[in-house]
């Protein structure tokens, strides 16, 4: 009888130890998440190597909120690469990143000055074209995103219907190892 009670006590002690270990781990995770959320809520850049995607996303968001749209687009592009190279790529998360890329491109196009005749500069046309493609990609990845639908319709209403991109100058293009242009 005593031996049976000792076995039951040992099993219960093992279960208690496992429960306390699990509880400790969950408390550690909760505090870590609270710290990250407090950093993001304060509008600061997350500098944590354990969460590279979140750090890149927060840096890009911070750059965009400060009006540095070009660098924000680059940082969101790097976040998109990180997300797609992760072990479990998430289409909804990729759609949100594409949405942020498109929004920053849209704002970059809107922040450009107009030509003297009131037409859009080529940089604005390029930004709007890229923003449209990114919004469409966002909607392909997450078709239910109402913000992307609204912003795409807003972009379509802002851009002229006869907008055409100017051909790019290709004098500096290299074919294999031979430069084109001056000898």
Which range does the strand content fall in?
under 5%
Structural class: mainly alpha
Number of beta-strand segments: 2
Anisotropy-based shape: elongated
Quick summary:
Helix content is about 70%, strand content about 0%. The protein has about 180 residues and is mainly alpha-helical.
How does this model look, in words?
A two-stranded antiparallel sheet has the order 1-2. The protein is mainly α and 183 residues long. The chain has helices at residues 2-41, 52-65, 69-85, 91-111, 122-141, 146-158, and strands spanning 174-175, 178-179. It folds into 2 domains: 1-42; 47-160, Tetratricopeptide repeat domain (Serine Threonine Protein Phosphatase 5, Tetratricopeptide repeat). The protein contains 6 helices and 2 strands, in the order H-H-H-H-H-H-E-E. Helix 3 runs antiparallel to helix 4 (91-111). 68% of the residues lie in helices and 2% in strands.
Topology of helices and strands:
Elements: H1 2-41, H2 52-65, H3 69-85, H4 91-111, H5 122-141, H6 146-158, E1 174-175, E2 178-179
Antiparallel strand pairs: 1-2
Helix pairs in contact: 2-3, 3-4, 4-5, 5-6
What are the key terms here?
single chain; 183 residues; mainly alpha; Serine Threonine Protein Phosphatase 5, Tetratricopeptide repeat; 2 domains; two-stranded antiparallel ribbon; 6 helices; 2 strands; 68% helix; elongated
């Amino acid at each position: 009888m005593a031996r049976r009670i000792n076995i039951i006590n040992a099993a219960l002690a093992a279960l208690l130890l496992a429960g306390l270990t699990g509880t400790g781990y969950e408390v550690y995770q909760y505090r870590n998440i609270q710290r990250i959320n407090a950093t993001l809520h304060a509008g600061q850049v997350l500098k944590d190597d354990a969460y590279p995607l979140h750090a890149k996303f927060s840096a890009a968001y911070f750059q965009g909120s400060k009006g540095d749209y070009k660098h924000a687009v680059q940082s969101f592009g790097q976040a998109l690469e990180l997300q797609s190279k992760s072990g479990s790529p998430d289409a909804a998360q990729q759609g949100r990143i594409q949405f942020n890329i498109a929004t920053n491109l849209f704002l970059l196009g809107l922040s450009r000055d107009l030509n003297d005749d009131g037409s859009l500069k080529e940089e604005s046309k390029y930004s709007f074209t890229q923003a449209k493609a990114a919004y469409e990609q966002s909607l392909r990845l997450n078709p239910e995103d109402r913000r992307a639908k609204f912003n795409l319709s807003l972009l379509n209403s802002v851009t002229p219907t006869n907008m055409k991109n100017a051909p790019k100058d290709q004098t500096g293009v290299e074919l294999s190892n031979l430069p084109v242009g001056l000898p």
